[in-house]
Amino acid sequence: MKRIMLLCLPYAGASATIYYKLNPFLEERIKMIPIELSGRGTREDEPLLFSFEDAVDDVISEIEYNVDSDDEYMLLGYSFGSILSYEAILRLKKKPLHLFLAAFQPPMYKSSYTDTLRLNDKDFVYRLVETGGIDNSVIKDMKLFEPFIPIIRADYSAVEDYKFKKPRKKIKCNATIFYTKEDEYSEKIRDWNHIFDFPCEYKEFAGDHFFIRREYNKIAHIINSVAMRYL
Which of 13, 135, 166, 195 is the most exposed place for a label (fewest CB within 10 A)? Predict the structure, then answer.
């Protein structure tokens, strides 16, 4: 029976475990592989990466480790994971069948976190809550959240370090974009069309930036439908 791998990259500060709740809703011929970023989860003993180039090199290494030459795969990136996914496929020899990008603006629009990164930890967290970068539930118990602050700082530093270079050619890969109108990135979301050779599909969700926490079933349904085109 033919199978397709689904490699998943998390949002800033998160572990790949955020995707575990997605797996039960996926079609049985889709093999989900959450990609853990350096410095968290099962890789917590490895260094955090503050350079975007180091982060994307790490992601490419993880993808190549999990994908053999005869494997077919799709790639799902959420927020920070979206920009990592985009840059990774530019450099990967073996391209994905399909790319799912969620909750992030196209790469030509610069996100600046310089002022936010200069804040002390408490103000840093409150700023992220205000801007929708993290869920406001974390401020109920700041002590429990403290171990995650260095991870988020590293990821935000990597985004700050990112320098977009317009590719010579548009990417020949089909893409589906997940977004919500309440997200700060939604105004420019359809400009992902300028990146890809084929028109992107857009799937709108309700609620804030973290709609993945509420919409595992819907996200999986879309992924299943897309996968059927290739199976």
Answer: 166
3 state SS of 200 = coil
Contacts of 141 (CB under 8 A, 6+ apart): none
Instruction: Please state, in angstroms and rounded to a whole number, the distance separating the CA atoms of residues 151 and 28.
Output: 33
Q: Kindly indicate the confidence band of residue 1, based on its pLDDT and cuts at 50, 70 and 90.
A: low
Instruction: Reply yes or no on whether the pLDDT at 158 is more than 80.
Output: yes
What are the structural domains, with CATH classification, of the chain? 4-108+167-227 (3.40.50.1820)
Q: Does residue 137 carry a pLDDT above 80?
A: no
164: Cβ–Cβ under 8 A, 6 or more apart, which residues?
107, 108, 110
Spatial neighbors of 2 by CB under 8 A, at least 6 apart, are 29, 72, 231
Under DSSP, is residue 44 helix (H, G, I), strand (E, B) or coil? coil
User: How big is the CA angle at 144 (ends 22 and 50), to the nearest 5 degrees?
Assistant: 70
